[in-house]
Amino acid sequence: MRLDQRCIVDMIKPQSKVLDIGCGDGSLIDYLCRHHQCDARGIELDMSYVTKTVAKGLPVIQGNADFDLQHYPTNGFDYVVLSRTLQAVNHPKEVLQQMLRIGRHAIISFPNFGHWTLRLQLLLKGRMPMTTVWGKYWYETPNIHPCTMTDFVHLCEVEGHRIERWMAIDEQGERAPWRRYVKLANFFGEQALFLLTR
Question: Which residues form the signal peptide (predicted)?
Fold first, then answer.
C-alpha cells in the first residue's frame, strides 16, 4: 500500500463499514478486509481497475464520484475514504458533502500543492511543478482542482465540516512535525490527510 493508505488504515477502527471512493487497485480494501475485519467496498471510475479488483474477489463497482454518490444511503458507512482523488473530481465541495452524508466520518488524502518544493519550482522555472507525488506533466495529469492544506481547511470552515484529525507526510514516510500549525505543515508536507466528521 501507499504511505497515505497506511496512515488511513490507522484512522479506521476495526470491524467498521468502509466505502473507498476511487479505490484503484483495491489494496486498501483488501487490507481492511483481511487485517481489520472491516466490511469494505469500493467505487472506481477506471473500468480496467474494476475488472482487476473484482477478479481478486473484492467488492468494487464502476462509478463516478461526481454523480454516483447520491445513490448511496445516508449513514450507510462508518468511514468514507477518498485517497489522492479529491483533486481529480469535478465538484470537490459536493463530493465532500456526499461523503459526510453517506458516512459518519470522511477520510481524505491529497497531494499538497502548497509544499515548498512546488512553490520553488513555480517561482524559479515558471512552469507547473512535478514531484514524486505529482509525477506527470500538467497536460497528462487528471488533476483539475489541485489545492493546498490551507485551502482545504478553509473549505471545511466554510462548509461546517469538523476536522477531527489531520497530518502532513512526505513520500519517505516522515510526518511533518508541525502538528499544531496547519500553515507550517502546508509549507513542509508533501501529502495531506484529514479525518472529518459532520
Answer: none
Kindly compute the dihedral angle of the four CA atoms of residues 91, 97, 98, 103, in this order, to the nearest 10 degrees: 140
Q: For 52, how many CA atoms within 13 A lie in the half-sphere containing its CB?
A: 12
Dihedral, CA atoms, 137, 138, 143, 144, nearest 10 degrees? -170
SS3 content of the chain, % helix, strand, coil (to 5): 40, 25, 40
For 195, other C-beta atoms within 10 Å of its C-beta total: 19
H-assigned helices in the chain: 3-11, 27-35, 47-55, 65-68, 92-102, 116-125, 149-159, 182-188
pTM of the predicted structure, to 2 decimals: 0.89
Q: Please determine, for residue 196, whether its predicted confidence score (pLDDT) is greater than 60.
A: yes
Q: Which of 171, 197, 166, 169 is nearest to 182 (CA)?
A: 166
* Residues contacting 133, CB < 8 A, separation 6+: 111, 171, 190, 191
Q: What is the pLDDT of residues 63-122, one digit of tens each?
A: 999 999 999 999 999 999 999 889 889 999 999 999 999 999 999 999 888 887 788 888
Residue with cell 474494476: 50
For residue 54, give the C-alpha cell. Answer: 473484482
Q: Which residue has the cell 496512515?
A: 7
**What is the enclosing helix (H) or strand (E) of 109?**
strand 103-111
Q: What is the pLDDT of residue 113?
A: 86
